Amino acid sequence: MCYTEGQGASTANRDSLLFPCILEKGDLVKPKTAIIIGAGPAGLTAAYELLKRTDIRPVVLEKSAYMGGISRTVDYKGNRMDIGGHRFFSKSDRVMNWWFQHMPLAAETQGEVGLTYQQQTRALSLAATSGSNGTASVAVEEAQVGTESILDEKRRVMLVRPRKSRIYFLRQFFNYPIQLTSDTLKKLGLARTFRIGMSYLRSAAFPIRNVQNLEQFFINRFGRQLYGTFFKSYTEKVWGVPCDQISAEWGEQRIKGLSIRKTISHFLRQAFRKSRDVSQKDTETSLIEQFLYPKFGPGQMWEEVARKIREMGGEIITEFDVHGLEVNDGRIAAVIGSDNDGNGCTFAGDWFFSTMPIKDLVRGLRTDVPSEVREVSDNLQYRDFITVGLLLDKLKVKDEEQRAKLITDNWIYIQEPEVLAGRLQIFNNWSPHMVADPGKVWIGVEYFCYEDDDLWRKPDDEMARFAIAELAQIDILETEDVSDWTVVRVPKTYPAYFGAYERFDTVREYLDGFENLFLVGRNGMHKYNNQDHSMLTAMTAVDNIIAGRADKTNLWAVNTEMEYHEEKKG
Fold first, then answer.
1. pTM of the model
2. Is residue 284 part of a domain?
3. What is the pLDDT of residues 113-140, one digit of tens each?
């Protein structure tokens, strides 16, 4: 599939090595190829869509040995970890139907939840996946899914899981998003509640004009007191800088539709709602009450998609480190890299998809990059991520109404400012199949840092002891109840909305100028995308190739359009 850099092959010789020719009607024809950097949700979606809808053969280059990027599932002695927590929920019919094609709902789930959404989407012709063979491929896929479900219906299935997340503050639990219930008012106390109410009314009456940063965004939306109580500490743990140094665009992208008014409205509607339809089309994403989840974690979805890509003739090469991209006449010509043994290899292609961090992509371009573009790119920032998996006999915290049972939260936001831990996942509650021993509690303690921080550099055993001590300090667990641990580090997990980000358009416009290069996914676009947003960018890129569209503004519009941006039309 590739030639080594030491061979010094000419472009003509390289093509003959990379692209075995096929004979068609007496002519020599070179198959078209797409080189895809990264086997995360965006990269694998692009590869699958190309195989189903075009004659372009994808070659996926993945740095690690895993499928799914940060959406992979980490297996530690049969205990599975979800890196960052991945709810399979989307406002996009196209994404939801795509998931169902690969993993249908578990049979036991279908009797528990309204299936209006699945029944509707399974009947759709998927007009969004337009193309010369789009409709036919859907019919074929449906038939394939039916067969595979019969053969392996107990494993390759989606569960419908209840969503519950809370804030841990003052050693007490508060519902997230905050609900002004009697329980909340009791825990906050009369004086604090009064200050929160008056602060919100002031912000509603006199909002900050020309909002520039995230702190102003939060204050306008929730009032200064509520922002300081429930948002400030956690947000600054995640990003490592004060909220007034973070672009308001982060709030616009992640929680645009969430407000006190909508939270109250949702709470009142739920009191009278009878349907448990999984679509939840009229619900803000932060307020959904259930979501889909692969039986064995998010990585199961992407391992399944990768299997199908290989079966259909696509290639996925793991443990391959991309070093650079060759440029020829204003187009990307090839990707250069090496395997784990240091063997250099170059992959030429017709189309290129990049999900790698933009900073690394620009540094790797083998051409004269404008100085301003290089300067902005070099100063883009990222937050890195550590999860400490802890296996316990039990948690110390309990719900008052169910003192003897495990709390039912999927994750808990830790607002306590005296600890660095930012969030806590309880993997038992994502799927019971995530835990090897159902009698144990399997949790993930999440930390946000930079690669040059002391936290990142801690040896694994020291990092585990640190996490255990922090949770003991805030009364989440007892140290003696921990029986095992593991540590997982993920660099460049969160593209940052500060530093050079305010000049990001300079980089975007330059890279979009390479007609055959598509930036997709979270790091590929330096955009804090959810999993489904990343998939949609890949789908849209394939749409553009099929349509012959050079303009890429529709890729950047994903997660900013009204319909998709968690707001109900009308």
1. 0.83
2. no
3. 444 444 434 433 333 333 333 333 333 3
